[in-house]
Specification:
Length: about 230
């Protein structure tokens, strides 16, 4: 069983109010993306890592890989105009590997154990999710309907899929010009196969808005304290 990892690094820093991509923000003095890549380096079973990023940041990302001496299994490629297209580019770059993990550069608090639990799950297709802790409704300018939060799951990455099946699902979505914001939904829609949901972690946050960086620093400091 061969396993590859696609790391999505397509952020441009707009929502977080910075003139550079979020993946280059520092957490504990280290770029967010490096936190992710170092975890992948520690797992020998992840044989190849493809990082997708915009053309303007290809060289900076490659320099980070070199400066942190991450190794030959890391490759930076051009991403797409959307997250979905970037995932597809990563899947194509990984070729005929058996299994693929999908993760984001801006989820820096991922742990080696979280990756390993996903990889060791007997199901071929697996995601992490956490319960919705707040009330949700359907609507835009006005309320349009009610949603039962007990039937909803907050999607987390990383996710795992059979690579060939996920690539086929992406190709079907491309033919339909259909847009999805993550891969479990896309895969379920087009492959029609079950996707196991494992319990996620509230520590595995995505850096999206400025307050997320404050939360991440607090979690990171707590994790360091627990490991010392």
């Amino acid at each position: 069983m061969t396993t590859g990892l696609v790391v999505l690094a397509g952020g441009i820093g707009k929502r977080i109010g910075r003139p550079f991509p979020k993946q280059f923000l520092l957490l504990g003095g280290k770029p967010l993306i490096v936190h992710v890549l170092e975890k992948a380096r520690a797992i020998d079973e992840i044989e190849r890592v493809v990082i997708t990023c915009p053309e303007a940041h290809l060289e900076a990302t490659r320099e980070l890989i070199a400066n942190h001496r991450l190794g030959a299994k890391f490759e930076c490629i051009l991403g797409g105009a959307s997250r979905q297209e970037s995932v597809y580019n990563g899947l194509v770059a990984l070729g005929d590997m058996d299994s693929v993990l999908i993760h984001e550069a801006v989820r820096p608090l991922i742990t080696v154990d979280t990756f390993r639990t996903l990889m060791d799950a007997p199901d071929e297709n697996v995601m992490y999710g956490i319960p919705i802790a707040f009330t949700v409704i359907k609507g835009h300018a006005y309320v349009e309907g009610l949603l039962d939060r007990d039937e909803l799951v907050n999607v987390q990455l990383p996710q795992k899929f059979g690579l060939a099946k996920l690539r086929a699902a992406h190709e079907a979505a491309r033919r339909d010009d259909a847009a999805f914001t993550e891969d479990a939904g896309l895969f379920f829609h087009y492959a029609g196969e079950p996707v196991r949901i494992l319990p996620g972690s509230h520590e595995n946050i995505k850096i999206t808005v400025p307050t997320d960086t404050v939360t991440a620093e607090a979690i990171y400091a707590d994790l360091l304290g627990r490991s010392s």
